[in-house]
Structure formats: structure tokens, C-alpha cells
Amino acid sequence: MSNRYVFIYASVMVVVVALVLSSAATLLRPLQERNMRIEKMQNILSTIGIPAPRAEAIELFEQYIVDAKVLNHLGEEIEGDAFEVDLRDENRKPVEERQLPLFIADVENELYYIIPVRGNGLWGAIWGYLSFKGDLNTIAGANFDHASETPGLGAEIADPPFQQQFMGKRIFDDDGDFRSVRVVRGTAPADDPHAVDGISGGTITSNGVTAMLRDGLRVYKPYFEKQKTL
Amino acid sequence: MSEQNTAPKETLFSPKNRKLLSEPIGKSNPITVQVLGICSVLAVTVQLRASLVLAIAVVAVMGLANVIISLLRHGIPPRIRIIVQLTVIASLVILVDQVLKAFVYDVSRQLSVFVGLIITNCIIMGRLEAYALQNKVWPSFLDGIGNAAGYGSILLLVAAIREFLGSGTLMGYQMIPNFLYDIGYVDNGFMILPPMALITVGVIIWVHRHRDRGLVDIS
Questions:
Q1: I want to staple A117 with a disulfide (CB 3.0 to 4.6 A). Which of A5, A63, A216, B173 is the partner?
Q2: Region A171-185: what's the mean pLDDT?
Q3: Of B11, B33, B192, whose CA–CA distance to B123 is shortest?
Q4: pTM of the predicted structure, to 2 decimals
């Protein structure tokens, strides 16, 4: 067989494959996006302790999440759909231009404020949701996930034992200064309200979580302060 | 054409064709005899459900890949045949991944990288190179399905053992009655860890060779 034939064969094959794959991706995209939206709802609900099976996630989300706002860096409410804000794009912008989404949940007449965060782990993106109690200081629940952290090491940020440590931690100290919550190497002092245990063998992912929380929560400080003085 | 008319027409499920299906499940099982595709066996067999989906995905990819390569076998330039095979497998795997993401999202999250790693499952390319490239479409299809089923059956067996002993469930349903837990039975957490998949496969190979003496290498 001539080189000419080989080249033509390879070119035709590549075009055919490209057509098949791109049409499949286009056809299935609406279904996949719906699944991702449902997963996002499940993650948000899990921070306020509401387990949501796939089939009921949309219904439960509408029931518990009573308000969703988009804020600017001054803590003022601006136009926008909080659920559709993509933190990947927002984190690239200067703070003054960012849209900061916030969800407000009502569980048995208690309000919870849920903030999405996003940062970098060792291999790829990590993201999560934190819910705050009415004092806008104490963490009620946390949910983290990751794109490609190492299974058994960094990937453990997505497991309940790691996430449960955040319950009851505080992001402001007694003077009202922003302290965030650090993931420390080894064991965190039991009486430190601003630190949790790190993951052995997952130090870079742990540091990624620390940075994500610090950068992701700090920008909400003006809003929190405004709410507290109301 | 006339040749085919004079020869006794081979039925779809002639003994020879049935053998294409049954041999890889037993005598020439890709996992226990050829010891291929071990990586995914170690990784996904913690739960029966994930294993079942992966087994079905491999059956689909392998059956279709064998058919496509067999259809193209006269046109594929020998010099780039490996590239063509890889392209076919990779495209099918991407299709399967997209379909899983659209219809069984939880399972696709659980299988994560392992759907993508079907591409590197050496059983598939092995069958394309060794069988589909030289044979007609129908036997190739059977060969693909047979080998994938041989792979899948071990996957399911290992997963059933590990899920039952490790979590006390099968397909997520509780199998060990509560009174056993009450009197002190504890799930063996070790079964959930990857090394136990290797040991389980080892035990299966042992039993398999014990029952089929022909497999024992006497050299």
C-alpha cells in the first residue's frame, strides 16, 4: 500500500471519528448538564445536613434554599443568578469585579448561609461548599470535592471524616478579625477553633484547602459584617 | 459466492462459534489464565454495582471494536493498524463515558478514571490484533463478547466476594442479617482495600487450575 493510501485512510478516519464524537457530545450535553446541576444541589444540601437522593434533589433544594444572592466585594447585592455563577471564571477576575454567590437555607426556622469556594489541589481543581450558622462565624457543615486528587491521600478531602472536622469551627476570632480555618499538618490543637487535622500524605491538597478557604471566604467579610450590624 | 453455496452453511451458533464465546470464560480466561487487565480488577471491585457497569461497558466496547475492525480488516493499512485499533477503541470508550455521564451519573463518578482506562485494557487490543484483524464479522463479534464476558465474570465474582465480606451487602442491599451483627459479627474492612482484590484473584486462579488440570504449566 502506498503512502498516499495510508495518509488518505488516516485523514478520513480522523474526520469520521471527530464527527461521531462531537455529535454524541452535543446530543448528550443537556442530560449531562442536568446531572451536574443535581450534583451541585446535593452538595449544597449536604452542608446543612440534608441528605438528598438524586430523584428528590431538585425538590428538596427548592424547599430548603429560600434565597440565593449574588454579592460584590463590598457586600452589596447585585444582579445575577447565584446558581449559575462559575467560580472558575470569577476567581480569575480582580476582587472588585467578582460576583460572589451566596445561598440562604432555612432548616426548621434556622437560617444557614452557604458559600461556595474553589481552589487548587495537587493535580487539579478542588471546590466545596461551607454553611454558616446565623452568627455568620460558626461553620455548620462543609462539603469538598476534587477533580483528580490522589485516591487514598488528597482525595480524602471528599470523605465525611475530613469534612466533619469543620463543624463548629469559626472563621473570625473573638476580636472579629478574619482567621479562616487552616488545615494543619498532623494534629490540630483541640482547643483551636481555626484549625483542623491535615491528611497524611496529602499535604499539598491540605494546603490547597487552607488557601481555598482563606481566599474564598475573606471576600465575604464585608457582607458578614453588614449582616451582623443589622 | 458459489463456494459458500456448496459448503455446508455455518449456522450462527455452530459448535465452533459457541466455543468462541465459552472458551474465554473458562479455559482461556483473559484474567485467570492470561492474567491481563488486572489493574481495573483491583480498583473497581469494591462494589458489585460499579463492577457490573464496568463489565457491561467492556462488553460493549469489545464487541463493537471487534466488529468495526473486522469490517475494516481488508482496508486497514498494515503499517498504521495499531493506530487504527487505538483510535477505534478510544472513540468507543469516549462514547461509553459520555453515555454513562448522561444516564448513570453516580456510577460514572464512582468509576471515574477507570472508564477511560478501558482504552489501556490490553485484553481489547489483544483481541483486535489477534482475532478481529483476520476473521469475519460474526466470529469476531462473538470473540469480543466472549472475552469481555470472561473478564466481566471474574470482575463480578471478585466484587461479589469483596462486597459481601467487606461491607456485608450485595448491590448495596444488606445480606448479613442484623442478629449476626448483634452477636458480634464484624465486616472485614480489609476486604475493601485493593490488596484483597489481588489475593481474591489469586485464590480464583488457584481454584480454576485445580479444577482444570490442563492449565497447570508443568515445564
A1: A216
A2: 90
A3: B33
A4: 0.76
